[in-house]
Amino acid sequence: METIKLDESRKEKLVFFADDSSTVRKLVSRLLEQSGFNNKGFDDGASLIEFLQECSSDAQPDVIVLDVEMTIVDGFED
Predict the structure, then answer these.
(1) How open is the CA angle 13-16-22, to the nearest 5 degrees?
(2) 16 CB neighbour count, 10 Å cutoff
(3) Where would I find the H helices in the chain?
(4) CA 76, CA 49: separation in Å to the nearest integer?
(5) Furthest-apart CA pair in the chain: how many Å?
(6) 48 alpha-carbon distance from chain centroid
(7) 46 neighbors 72 (Cβ within 8 angstroms)
(8) Phi first, then psi: what are they for 17, rounded to 5°?
(9) What pLDDT shows up at residue 57?
(10) Distance between CA atoms of 71 and 69, rounded to whole angstroms?
């Protein structure tokens, strides 16, 4: 398993995630917040990618998590 290192210079860690289920997005967001992570959820991978392309470099997330089974840009897309 690959080890992921977070940007230690940023005090608050930021996680972007995509899931097509609003229930899962709410649950994941709550769990991340309780663990001390700022987060932003997206309905699908395409909207996450579009947001990434438009946000500034200092707003880039430390980690991105995608659901592997979504209709629009899933976790298996290149």
Answers:
(1) 130
(2) 22
(3) 22-34, 45-54
(4) 14
(5) 36
(6) 8
(7) yes
(8) -145, 155
(9) 77
(10) 7
Report which residue type is found at 65.
V
Total residue count of the chain as it appears in this document: 78
pLDDT of residue 45: 87
Residues 37 and 14: beta-carbon distance below 8 Å: yes
Which amino acid belongs to residue 76? F
6-63: per-residue pLDDT in tens? 556 657 799 999 998 999 999 999 999 999 999 999 998 889 989 999 988 778 899 9
pTM comes to 0.75
Query: What is the C-alpha to C-alpha distance for residues 62 and 15, in angstroms, rounded to an integer?
Result: 6
- What would the two tokens of residue 7 be? 């940007």
The tokens of 17 are what?
């995630």
Identify the DSSP state of 68.
S
